[in-house]
Amino acid sequence: MEDCIKTDVVIVGAGPVGLFAVFELGLLDIKCHLIDILPRAGGQCSELYPEKPIYDIPGHPMVTGQELVEKLLVQIEPFHPTFHFEQMVTEIETLGTSSAPAFRVKTDGGSTLECKAILVAAGGGSFQPKKPPIDGIDAYEQKSVHYAVRKMDDFRGKDVVIVGGGDSALDWTLNLQPVAKTLTLVHRRDDFRAAPHSVKAMRDLVADGKIALKIGQITSLTGNDGVLSSVSMKGSNGALVDIPCEMLVPFFGLTMKLGPVASWGLNLNENLVPVDTAQFETNVPGIFAVGDINHYPGKLKLILCGFHEASLSAQKVHHYVYPDKKLTFQYTTSSTNLQKKLGVA
Amino acid sequence: MPHSQKTGSSMIKITFIDSTGEKRVVDAEEGSTVMEAAIRNSIPEITAECGGACACATCHVYVAEEYLDRTGKPEANEEDMLDFAYAVQGNSRLSCQIKVTPALEGLVITTPPRQG
Q1: Chain A positions in Cβ-Cβ contact with residue B56 (cut-off 8 Å)
Q2: What is the pLDDT of residues A126-150, one digit of tens each?
Q3: CA of A104 to nearest chain B CA: how many angstroms apart?
Q4: Domains in chain A, start-ordered, CATH in brackets?
Q5: Above 0.90 for ipTM, yes or no?
Q6: Dist CA B14 CA B30 (whole Å)
């Protein structure tokens, strides 16, 4: 097992609210590690609407999702947070007591962290690959249906079908073509949003007869014991075509799923985590929920509400991390102490 | 994502037919989107996960043929997002990209059984 990381707080989710929590906790001398399933910070802001303008961040008449994330990263830089990307928190073990909480957090990436408080800032849940709603697809997911390529060798000598028209679909078409027995790319239209050079490389392979490109949508699967033998595709003219297929790799983007949050012993109300409105603590002392994932009377899913929640929860987190220290309220405008932490005094 | 609330604009009737055939008629505000009208009126089978940013393909709908001229064709970014939807047809649109105008009075929208 990998070494256990010891820190004050683990923040689950590196979206705008998780990032701002680093700032509020940092001012109180609390160190944070952030865990996010995405490969970068920003959550929905970076993943769903990086270029879209946001108009309701105080002091920013207009800021794009990506700009906001970049500014938050600059803002929290003095506190040196540690990011664990492309990992999902799978397990939370309670180690302490309700008055002196402590937790052991495990991720699917093999990391183990021990902390005194947890901030769940998981937004709409974790981003996971969208599954095409084809009847019976679940039965093939262990052996024949893959939403990502982990080991290319698994595809060696197989009839492979890749579905999609973006960069992932095209990149894997180009990468798997040399190892696959046959490779068929299926897309709903003869137009691809992937990078032009990969589209050209794909079309060259089609022209050379090395791969097949079929325009249509997969409608059904055929196989035995979780192993596929073929898929059926409905073409744009409505005709059904059978394609030999032992490995199916559909790329339909990402969707948000609550995921393991449901198994952490937290009360849930329609996939949201109820909290108190003084400290945004959940039913488990030491575990807080901030941002879109929490619920309380009057809750609004706004970034600015998440910022507010993060700043208030930090006060109670301080109590858990430094039980013997009295917390004095200070302003960044006037406190030399806070300004030193920010590196400006 | 935030959306603005306009006042004083006219109301346009839209009929949503769900995948079981049940019909629901709602009043949509001119200038809003078909997705917003659906969400405000709790129309089932429209998720709108991203809140109207044309970034998720979970507000996928079918536009009745006779209204296709008036709703127009998807732009390139909407076509790109439709790649993430299922059972896409010639009359498929993302409802967050259809602006409600007086020309759409009586619009008929059918929703797919699943948004993914």
Answers
A1: 48, 253, 255
A2: 988 888 888 899 999 989 999 988 8
A3: 32
A4: 5-127+255-341 (3.50.50.60), 131-252 (3.50.50.60)
A5: no
A6: 11
